[in-house]
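User: Here's a chain of 710 residues. Predict its fold as tokens.
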Amino acid sequence: MTTLNYTVSFQKTVLASLIGLCLSQTSFALEELSDAGLSETTGEGIAILPQNAFMVFRGAGPNESVNQIITDRSKDTGYINYMPVGPLSVAAADTSGNGTVGPEDKAVGKADIFLYGLALSKSDGDANSRIANTATAAAISSWGTGANPWVFKVKTANNIPNFSTTDSGGYPVTYLSLEAPLYQPTIDGAAGADAYNLKLGLWTDVFVRNPNIVATTNGSLAQFQYGDSNGLIGTSIDTSRANRLRLQGILNGFSLNGSQISMFQTLGGATTAGGMSPFYNNTLGMSGLVRLNTGDSKNTSIVTENITSQTQTYATSANNGWQTVHAGANSTLSTSSSGDCGNSSTGSFSTSRGCRYYVENRTRTDTKTSSKTRSAFNDTGKVLRLSTRETSDSPNASNNLYTPALDATGAVAPKFADTEGLYLYNPNINLVLGNLYQPLILGSDGKNFSIEIARIANKPEIYKQIYTDYTGADTTYKGSTCNVYSCASPTHSSIAIGTVYSPDNGKTLLADTSEGAIGVSFGRLISTGTQVSGTSAGSLVPLTNSVSGTTSATMTEVRYKQRQQNTQIWNQTYSCGLFNTSCGYKTLGYLYQWEYSQGTGSWVITNPTAKPADAATCSGVLGCTSTSGSTPMYGTVSNRDWSNASIPWLTSRNAVVNDLIGSSNGTTGYVIPTANQAPALNNITPLNNLGSAVVDGLLIQHLKLTTKGL
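Assistant: Prediction complete.
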């Protein structure tokens, strides 16, 4: 179970607009919708348009002026308390596994969570403040527009299949939904701009409770003191043991537009077959689309490179840079066109490895003259920051068990360091949590609470509405991914951090891998000055703001032609003995010539010599002999010519060629890219910039989360 305690004060609150409560004297305005606009909506609904709104959780106390609320952050101590009840089981507390709980076990306690100072406002671009310090800077002037408001409505969807795999019918499903304004920043313009630049802030204290002490709000810290200095139950308590985690969360420059949540009664038809559950039938179902977007980030970079010149030069200008390494005329490595392979004769020839390959290489040197400059970057404007370090002047900073929730006389909010923590820049988080075909179901077995996204039924009418055919070949699959660029009837989720782009008009996302790409950073992504080097605690290194110079790279690639001996056989002689006895073919003939690799597994004989026909049969009382051709026979000089146009160059890896020419002449299997390969100048991005990240096309096939009594 969870116990909720809260003391909250709202000023022009957005939350009030959503739940119908108005705790301040100033209320928001509702803009009129035209009949033409309403005529396009099916069902019943209410349009809501919050204006000049912000909210913040304040501690209990006398009424305050707007100026007090907006300028004094020390009183942001209104909280929600999540407190587990009931004892720990032996299974949870018996960490030694001896069947009993005693001093030898680790000090295991339940968590006591206090969530404070929740604030929602227009972003001020400060990643260390939960709300701006003036009402003008904090107020969301209009969360939506008259043409694009919040909508609370009831609507019916038709032809929805139930869970039964044998029922192909479609049924109506009526749902109640709350929809944020559509995500359309280019259409909403200045009137709706604040809705795309929101700020969410909060901080929390999480404690380990002593299971032997009853929870109290009288300020006693003993309830959070548990365990000895070794972390065991032991025989005494180490009162200096820090059993508290303090965390601050700030999300700047985001939008909720495009989000929605719906509630409905699920259809029936589910059985225990195929991993389904009768629990899915005719119960409370929900679907949600959570869109936390900070906007298009594809061109966001902290490094600008300017290339002033670049060259590509081959070691020799003749033959497009190619030079002979081995001419295929000698059994050992040689550039000579004559040798012991027999290329100029019509007699026998050598089949040693040197005679089977003709090899060339070429060497290219690429140069690039350029400069790189670290670009100006707003490293606090669009970021999700999670931090925990307090400043030295933070109230009660030395007391690791202090929390304003238990301070009845002088509760004061903490102060957090302004550059510490995990920074996730330009987050675009689009989560699809269930739909009419695959509902999210809330339930209970009488003791525990569960949240389940139903298993996708093995039914074409259902799974074809969810799955995606990324090739586009089968248009009966209707599923798609929701991201910052596209979110039409989504079934798949995406999470993008940092510099991310779409190569196919929003169908998929890719993380930018360039040097200037931003994303995940431990510590603020400082753009100038010095920063922690990471080599030792607190060590600082200077950051270079620019670098220039010329770099070069020299590469060698190898190509070759390959041949092998082709042998053809025919019956050269036929003979009979006296009185036509023992007649038959007696001698085989052999034709030897070269066949050349085409690189595809096939081989071709160039300028082939045709083998003779089999010897003709004969007969005679005195015996007879018939002969066809002579043996051995060999290919012509033209068959041995490496320059034949039908012999292709090969570049695939070949260990025999590598061994023949030696590594100094290059190796097969490498082809010099067309693009300039001169290396980039030294990296000038901050050391703590870990780059961008993407999780794209995330589909939840089935998910069930169940609380379990410890």
